[in-house]
Design goal:
Blueprint lengths: L5 E5 L5 E5 L5 E4 L2 E4 H4 L6 E4 L5 E5 L3 H7 L9 H10 L7 E5 L5 H10 L4 E5 L3 H15 L12 E5 L12 E6 L8 H7 E11 L2 H14 L4 E7 L6 E4 L2 E4 L9 E7 L3
Parallel strand pairs: 7-8, 7-10, 8-9, 10-11
Antiparallel strand pairs: 1-2, 1-6, 3-4, 5-6, 11-15, 12-15, 13-14
Helix pairs in contact: 3-4
The structure holds S-adenosylmethionine.
Length: 265
Amino acid sequence: MKEGELVHLIDKKGKRYRILLKTGSSFSFTRGTISHDEIIGLEDGSVIKSAGGENLLIVRPTLAEYISKMRKGSQIIYPKDIAAILMLADIFPGAKVLEAGSGSGALTMALLRAVGKDGKVVSYERRKEFSEIARKNIETFFGKVESTGKEHSGELILKDKDVYEGIEEKELDRIILDLQEPWRVLKHIEQSLRNGGILLCYNPTVLQIYKLSKRLELRYPRSFRVMSIYEVGMRGWEIKGRSMRPEHKMIAHTGFIFVARKIQN
Ligand SMILES: C[S@@+](CC[C@H](N)C(=O)[O-])C[C@H]1O[C@@H](n2cnc3c(N)ncnc32)[C@H](O)[C@@H]1O
């Protein structure tokens, strides 16, 4: 664990505390205090005792854990859907991907990891305040956006742009839209997505999905083929002694995942 690194401390009940390690600082909670200096230099997965005698597990958060706890400007895509999106959009190492809008940057981060250091993610966002939040979230996890594309992630370009007005990039492998009116982008996608490329749209309501598929069918029958529409359900389980059962609460409907392919016309 290094100075400047983000770590999660987990108590015996599973409650998480998020801290950014800083020499000389300390972290206090109801059952004690721990100085950051005691954590710096430890290995990921270490256990430390607070001054109040409570054992805390110290871990580097996974991307899903990080996303769940990070600052949100807009509604994010939940990790359960992000996992499916990576597979259904077939995001591969070296891929050139365009995403809109960046929102809080949750999907952007997963894309960046999946395209690897030879890949590229361009993310459009029309609201400056959201692109600032996305940038901060991404930089806390990956380091400066300007230095992405080296070790653990693809190159990232954040653009303060309205995707309804056009897409500058060409020959994209994948385009992923998480915004209200994806049908307004189709005319630009037709020019920017390579043949065989995948368009994936994520939308919460069935009316949006209906309008999108009708628009594709009526105006772009020779440019796109609709492949699939899914929604993803994931239910957690609890194990407490002899009680093993599904959790009482679950995230039910979030969004539909709509997948189409660009065809040569
Ligand atoms: C639901 S949020 C995206 C959340 C993001 N996928 C995440 O996981 O954090 C939708 C975002 O799209 C942006 N947006 C809406 N229309 C847009 C457009 N025409 N061009 C660019 N961004 C747009 C909004 O400002 C908002 O930040």
